[in-house]
Specification:
- The chain has helices spanning 6-18, 51-68, 83-93, 134-145, 162-170, 181-190, 196-210; strands at 2-3, 22-24, 30-31, 37-38, 40-42, 74-78, 97-100, 113-114, 122-130, 149-158, 175-180.
- It is α/β, with parallel strands linked by helices.
- It has a single domain (2-210), classed as 3-Layer(aba) Sandwich (Rossmann fold), CATH 3.40.50.
- It has a 7-stranded mixed β-sheet with strand order 1-11-10-9-6-7-8. The protein has a two-stranded antiparallel sheet with strand order 2-5. The protein has a two-stranded antiparallel sheet with strand order 3-4.
- Helix 1 (6-18) packs antiparallel against helix 2, helix 2 (51-68) crosses helix 3 and helix 6 runs antiparallel to helix 7.
- It is globular and about 55 Å long.
- It starts with a strand and ends with a helix.
C-alpha cells in the first residue's frame, strides 16, 4: 500500500477537504456501514459534482496508470462509487472500461462483471475508497476468477487501516492511492481544519482500534 507521490497526496487531501468529501469530527463520531465509530468520514461520490476536483482526480489516475501500469489493457471500476471516475479515467487513456458488481446479477446474463473483458486482458482496478479492503478485494478476485491478470488497484483515498494492508498482502495485489489518512490528517492540521488536540484524537483512534488486526 503506497501513495502515488507526495505532491498529489497533499493536493488530493486539499481537494477532498475543500468539497467536504472528507469530514473530520473528533468530538462527534460518525458510524460507518460496518458499525465502526469513527472521527473521519469519506464520501468520494461528491467528487463528481465538482468539475475542477473531478478533472484533477481523473488526470492523476491516468498519470498513475501510465507510470505504474503501462501494460494495462482495461480499466475496471468497482460498483458503485468508482464506476464514473473509472470510466472518465479510461476515456483519458483511450482504453476499454468494465465495472464489477458487488454481487452477481440475479437476472438476465447473471453477470458479475459488466462490459467486455477478453481472456488475455490485463486489468487495473479503480476504487473511490478503501477502508478494510474487503469489498475491493472481492472485486479483484472476481476479475482473477475470469482468468484475467490484475496489475494493481488505484484508489482516491484509504484510511490506511492495518487490516487493509494485511488483506492486500494476502492476495498479492498492489494498492496505490492518491492520498491517505496519515497525509490528510497532517494536512488538515497544517491548514487549520483541525487543532493539534484533534489531530491526536485521530491518531489515537486509528492505532487504538486497528493495530491489533
Amino acid at each position: 500500500m503506497k501513495i502515488f507521490n507526495e505532491k498529489t497526496a497533499k493536493q488530493t487531501a486539499y481537494e477532498l477537504l475543500k468539497i467536504k468529501a472528507v469530514k473530520l469530527s473528533p468530538s462527534d463520531l460518525f458510524t460507518w456501514t460496518s458499525g465502526i465509530r469513527s472521527p473521519i468520514y469519506c464520501d468520494n461520490r461528491k467528487i463528481l459534482s465538482f468539475p475542477e476536483t473531478r478533472n484533477y482526480i481523473k488526470k492523476q489516475f491516468a498519470d498513475l496508470i501510465k507510470i505504474n501500469y503501462p501494460d494495462a489493457d482495461v480499466i475496471a471500476g468497482v460498483a458503485t462509487g468508482a464506476i464514473a471516475i473509472g470510466a472518465l479515467t479510461a476515456d483519458i487513456l483511450g482504453k476499454p472500461f468494465v465495472y464489477v458488481r458487488s454481487n452477481t446479477k440475479k437476472h438476465g446474463l447473471s453477470n458479475r462483471i459488466e462490459g467486455v473483458l477478453r481472456k488475455d486482458d490485463k486489468v487495473v482496478v479503480i476504487e473511490d475508497l478503501v477502508s478494510t479492503g474487503m469489498s475491493s478485494i472481492e472485486a479483484v478476485n472476481a476479475i482473477k476468477q475470469k482468468g484475467n491478470k490484475v496489475l494493481g488497484m488505484c484508489a482516491v483515498f484509504t484510511y490506511k487501516l492495518p487490516i487493509a494492508v494485511k488483506n492486500f498482502k494476502n492476495i498479492d495485489c498492489e494498492l496505490v492511492t492518491l492520498s491517505d489518512f496519515d497525509i490528510l490528517s497532517e494536512f488538515a492540521f497544517e491548514y487549520k481544519y483541525i487543532t493539534k488536540e484533534e489531530l491526536e484524537i485521530l491518531r489515537k483512534w486509528k492505532f487504538s482500534n486497528f493495530t491489533k488486526n
